[in-house]
């Protein structure tokens, strides 16, 4: 019995495998012709023709440049090409696809004229015959993908399986058999795969679509841009390129030599900072070859001037340095207007030094009408005029000639004195020149004119009698005023101070005599007041007693148990 079960299971598995193999061999994984209608099925025009193709796979199929062709039995050379599937912009990288498990409908020109509301994907010229003909699908290389032949008696070398399908009846078309909904039979035998049938009431169309390969330089069709790649105008894809120098022409994947990347992807030339140190706008004699601009390199490395330019005044005209110009570290280098074709005006102007990408390096203050032969120079950090131009050397201040006795020029901003005055060398003020011809107002009675000040003074103050001082006073020789003799000798007529007071030697006023601190006849002792802390202690004792009582009541069973144990132990010791 056991062997019978094993044999039955084996037979069932073998049967399923056979059916599965037969089923799979009946299915196609590509494009097939699903229907052919060679004439009107309702008694109309004989040119009402229809061909349907079908994507019998689970993936969209690229049908770019595929064609549906028509030919006669016995020859593989087509009579004509009915239609081809081309992109609306036919060029490399543009494709046409038919969606998976979807049909495409082709109808004759007569068909669409008679039924203008009938939807379709392509139109072909009429001319399908009812027998001894075939329709095929060829790929872009011309290889036949599928072919169906109808109305041929006997064997045929052009039909799949060498046997054509049946001759379509007057009111019927031929169509491929269906295995399951959405799956059509394709055993590569036209006679077995097709049958006569009535046309369907509904036909699907519009499932052909166009697509572009976004990356022509990558194998396969890139319908979506791969992650991390970007396409150029020729649809060549590569990694995303970041222009690190957005302010420069072109795309720079890295900073150019001599440039430094700043914020916001701005690249700036990283050049040594140079200084303009001297200009000679108004040389003595001819300007040509004598005007110069001096540059100083304060850095510890040489500076190539090929990336520097000069700007004169407010003009936007730039002047390049001579080819190969280099300033060594710590060097002053002057360029004349013969070396660089610039012009320094003699009135008002300035000079700026910039980089070729218009970064400001240095700029002079504006000079204003310099004297002939005087240069505008940076000396000890201050721009000033100097009558000693030093092109290519350290700048020096103007040379000042010493004045001689015969040629002394004193400049002053003070107002001139009047004709009858002179300037005092001590006070630098104007004073009256006293001469015999000077006319002065006479002094009043009792006054005379001082020879020192030329002013009137009181005769009485110099030689007149002085009023005598009062008794107990004397005349102060310094102020010529009376003062108390007692104040000088330390004697005073002041009223005596009251009892308990004394005279302050500083202010000569009476003040109270400070009483000495009384001394106690015994040492002070610390006193203490009786404390009420006993109330606190009694309170704590009461609380503690309540807590102990509660504990005894709460653990009374344990205490009783412990006491009984102790009692038993005591009894045993007594017996022993």
Overall CATH class of the domain at 29-211: Mainly Beta
Percentage of residues in helical conformation:
10-25%
Anisotropy-based shape: flat
Structural class determined from secondary elements? alpha+beta
Give the percentage of residues in beta strands: 25-35%
Q: How much is the radius of gyration in Å? A: 64 Å
Written overview of the protein:
The chain has 576 residues and is of the alpha+beta class. Among the domains are: 29-211, Immunoglobulin-like, CATH 2.60.40.1260; 272-386, Immunoglobulin-like (Sandwich). The chain contains 7 helices and 40 strands. The strands form 14 sheets. It has a 6-stranded mixed β-sheet with strand order 8-7-2-1-11-14. A 5-stranded antiparallel β-sheet has the order 26-21-20-31-32, with no helix packed on it. A hairpin with a 6-residue loop joins strand 33 (421-423) and strand 34. The protein is flat and about 180 Å long. The two termini are 90 Å apart. Residues 1-28, 403-411 and 517-531 have low confidence and may be disordered.
Q: Which features does this protein show?
A:
576 residues; alpha+beta; Immunoglobulin-like; 6-stranded mixed beta sheet; 5-stranded antiparallel beta sheet; 7 helices; 40 strands; 28% strand; flat
